[in-house]
Design a protein that fits this description.
The chain has 16 helices and 13 strands. It is α/β, with parallel strands linked by helices. The protein is globular.
Length: 368
């Protein structure tokens, strides 16, 4: 029996972990002969703690209920990272898993990796090797440090493998593809049941912009947030409705900075399938989310990224993703110069990344 401790705490991690959990279930059902069964123990750090940001995702994605809920909640980076380590250490010492599996680039990622490494438990990092080369981003610090303490690094793209090699990390790094692509393909077949969303929101397919804003460099800087919302309101004024599932942090800072956003159709956070449906039917996606940049690419919807750089460089190199930062004028120009046609290149695997990861883990633990 192989025991894996999975550490999650934020929406993108729930999505990725769901793909791995399905692959583990498949492994246990069909690979019993010659391979050990895998026992997955899920830890939810509570970094996203309200229902819309957490429990609804577990339910919709079919992710098993967490065995441990650490209940960390919101807070500064040091607080979150430290509290996760404090509450995670005891259970990991008790369970003694064969490895700890962490995802992405959040405080939960780094805290899970650090705790395991100090306990001499091997760490596997899913979505390893990404680099924005902007050390002002907390996410960049988290992903770099996690990569350097991980034994196994599962990369979503060839560029990610090259990034690791440049930092001297070659052993244990492999290109498996993007588990979010697995999930996107899985749920694309199931999202039409949400077709009442457009009528409820007064939208028409292919005629609106879908926006998301949540990164700290945008939400916590008054000038940046004001400029972004100025740009979004200009999009509305020029005839394209903007619908924005409003992240709690963004909502709070809009109030703190007294920023007007009356023209924008804000809605509460939505489930993964609802978001995928809104993405698929949008004219364009405006976002600072890495996940949405990729989903726009996979769904064939033009994307405008409200950051100054991206880890997902392939989407930009293909011409499908336009970087505008927080500049309202650049956003306006991009809206009027969206890419045409269809993107056909595949950079992120074949939709079997989760199976490759699970098979790789089983073989390494079994054979050493």
């Amino acid at each position: 029996m192989i025991t894996i401790a999975t550490i999650v705490g934020a929406r993108p991690q729930f999505i990725k972990a769901a793909a791995i959990s399905r692959a583990i279930a498949k492994h246990n059902k069909f690979k019993a002969n010659g391979f050990p069964q895998i026992n997955e123990i899920i830890f939810h750090t509570g970094q996203h703690y309200d229902y819309e940001m957490s429990a609804v995702f577990f339910k919709e994605l079919g992710l098993p209920d967490p065995a441990y809920h650490l209940g960390i909640g919101s807070g500064n980076h040091g607080f979150q990272t430290g509290k996760v380590m404090e509450k995670l250490e005891g259970p990991l010492m008790k369970i003694k898993p064969d490895l700890v599996l962490v995802y992405g680039d959040t405080n939960s990622t780094l805290a899970g990796g650090l705790t395991a490494a100090k306990l001499k438990i091997p760490v596997a990092h899913v979505e390893a090797g990404l680099r924005s080369f902007n050390r002002d981003m907390p996410e960049e610090i988290n992903r770099v440090l996690t990569d350097h303490l991980s034994s196994w690094l599962f990369c979503p793209s060839e560029q990610a493998v090259k990034n690791l090699a440049k930092e001297g990390i070659r052993n244990g790094a492999s290109m498996v593809g993007d588990v979010m692509y697995d999930v996107c393909l899985w749920h694309q077949q199931r999202i039409d049941k949400h077709n009442n969303l457009l009528s409820e929101l007064g939208l028409q397919s292919g005629s609106y912009a879908l926006a998301t804003i949540h990164r700290a460099e945008n939400t916590d800087d008054q000038e940046s947030l004001s400029s972004i919302f100025k740009g979004l309101e200009r999009v509305v004024s020029e005839g394209t409705p903007v619908v924005l599932p409003l992240h709690p942090r963004t909502k709070k800072m809009l109030h703190v900075f007294s920023i007007n956003y009356q023209k924008i159709k804000t809605i509460p956070p939505v489930s993964y399938e609802e978001m995928l449906f809104l993405e698929k039917n949008a004219k364009v996606i405006l976002t600072d989310s890495g996940g949405l940049q990729k989903e726009a690419f996979w769904l064939g919807i033009p994307c405008i990224t409200l950051r100054n750089e991206t880890e997902w460089v392939e989407t930009v190199q293909s011409g499908w993703n336009i970087i505008v930062g927080n500049d309202a004028d650049l956003l306006d120009h991009a809206i009027h110069n969206l890419p045409a046609g269809k993107q056909g290149k595949k950079f992120y695997g074949n939709g079997k990344a989760a199976e490759k990861i699970v098979n790789h883990i089983a073989e390494i633990i079994l054979h050493g």
